[in-house]
Specification:
Strand content: 15-25%
Strand order of the largest sheet: 1-2-3-4
CATH superfamily: VSR Endonuclease
Radius of gyration: 15 Å
Number of strands: 4
């Protein structure tokens, strides 16, 4: 983890009790919560909203907004559209994931079409990762 001075230089804030984030992203995150994609809605209402541990939608972490975040499991769940297939987007996602992983987070990614067409497989993968990270047995 970076020291507070370095975090401030990057425009991030932290109390030491949460992952640093850019406060300028809070309003954008609120807007994104109101305008979830169909795949994000399906995942949220089909599984994540009623999970036993808190899962946050469109959560600012570092200088990014992640689709879903479970603080207890330190798990980030991303639902990607076609724009993530471009070469520059793949590199950006790899760098982004690396930064998030430096905070001890695990990032898992799904394509929109996987969520829409293979929902049960996506759901089981998420629940498996959550249970492994939390150390509990969760029925998928």
């Amino acid at each position: 983890m970076l020291d507070r001075h370095t975090l401030r230089q990057r425009g991030l804030i932290t109390t030491g009790h949460h992952i640093p984030y850019n406060p300028r992203l809070k309003e954008i995150a609120r807007q994104l919560r109101r305008k979830m994609t169909e795949a994000e809605k399906k995942l949220w209402y089909g599984t994540l909203r009623d999970f036993d541990y808190t899962i946050l939608r469109q959560k600012p972490l570092d200088n990014f907004i992640v689709d879903f975040y479970c603080p207890k499991a330190k798990l980030v769940i991303e639902v990607d559209g076609d724009s993530h297939d471009a070469a520059n987007a793949v590199l950006y996602d790899e760098e982004r994931d690396s930064i998030l992983e430096s905070y001890g987070l695990k990032v898992i990614r799904f394509q929109n079409e996987d969520v829409m067409n293979n929902f049960e497989r996506v759901r089981k993968r998420i629940l498996t990762d959550l249970s492994e990270r939390i150390g509990l047995r969760i029925e998928a």
